[in-house]
């Protein structure tokens, strides 16, 4: 059996403002009608002998990840990491968890933020990898390079393994090169890009982790042993997991083991790591532009423009990126989009909320979007999913006025329970215990007007919550 291990813990800062800390690129639909996490699972549809996936994500993303699996009809275990600790601990957790549930399955490790254009070729190469993994090898999939890229690490292929496996021994893992060196790699034909995709038996990777990263493996055992179930999730122990050094599986194991092999993958791979990558993979118009949203351009070429909420116009541009969201606009030359990370760093240093989240914030019961705000008031558009309900709660510093736009609401207000329909409203006084619930079969939409001296999301006391949350979570 093959167990997919989906690594979904990244932050995607180079795609800000589309990607935010609380809503990273693997959880948004930047490539097609599915999110990148969903695409990662869906492209495995033709792989035979597939077990339920193990998805590893940051605990703050747990409800979004679970909802996205539900939307595509996939079931799987979701393991929550309290902090990011790179790929070696994540894979160790998955291997330990897998070893406890099945007889030595093959693990197929896939980052959740890649694009594979040729899924049939991807499936074929996975089958090649399965044979090598079942023989005890640690398989990595190297991407056949199409350009002298300086943003990827490289793998130097060694001797061909023969027997129709299409595998090679690994001579070396090489760090990101400069342009001239990358060109020499491309010209040699002996190098692949390091994709971060792997395949190995559970017992094999555990043996190598025990040999080359024993401290990491021991702390992961402790983190799992002291972990606990939380609804449909598994939370590892925070203290033990935070004590782990953050090494990649490349550094921790693959660069040291003598069991590593590489298979070349030529299937239209892209990690969508920048807006330039989105331009390269997007559908272009006659002027070589990739345009998404309400956009009017004149004398614009080789440009990527994304508009979420309003009309965006441009004239006289060549090779630019413009990204508009409800709360931010980013403009940069295409060749400078890697520097978006510096913008995000600046936002974090200034304590700007735009680094963390969008104006639309997702919750397990639905979402809310801030429409307007000033010193002592805030207006939000709230959507509650059918059958969902918010926590029973109160606020110390704000009152709230709810008006139903569509759907039906059950409102707990102190000791009362009210049924509200379209165009009906209710006022929740400061300090009054309350709850909102959608008993219907269609989404409940309402407008909330908050008023008071402090309107932060941490002004909340929960008395009951079906999602086991705390404070802003």
Helix count, DSSP H or I runs of 4 or more residues:
11
pLDDT below 50 for ≥5 consecutive residues: which ranges? none
Shape: globular
Quick one: how many beta strands? 30
Give the helix proportion (percent range).
10-25%
What is the typical, i.e. mean, pLDDT? 94
| Rg calc | 24 Å
Strand order of the largest sheet: 20-21-22-29-24-27
Kindly name the structural category: alpha/beta
* C-alpha termini separation: 36 Å
Largest sheet: 6 strands, antiparallel
Quick summary:
The protein is of the alpha/beta class and 473 residues long.
Per-chain topology:
Blueprint: E1 2-7, H1 36-42, E2 54-58, H2 62-71, E3 77-81, H3 87-99, E4 106-111, E5 115-116, H4 119-134, E6 138-143, E7 154-160, E8 167-174, H5 179-188, E9 191-201, H6 202-212, H7 214-225, E10 228-230, E11 233-235, H8 238-242, H9 249-254, E12 260-265, E13 269-270, H10 275-281, E14 290-292, E15 295-301, E16 304-307, E17 312-318, E18 320-324, E19 329-333, H11 340-349, E20 360-363, E21 366-373, E22 377-384, E23 392-394, E24 399-406, E25 409-413, E26 416-420, E27 425-428, E28 434-437, E29 444-451, E30 461-464
Parallel strand pairs: 1-2, 1-4, 2-3, 3-11, 6-12, 14-16, 15-17, 16-18
Antiparallel strand pairs: 4-9, 5-13, 6-9, 7-8, 7-9, 8-12, 10-11, 18-19, 20-21, 21-22, 22-29, 23-30, 24-27, 24-29, 25-26, 25-28
Helix pairs in contact: 3-6, 3-7, 6-7
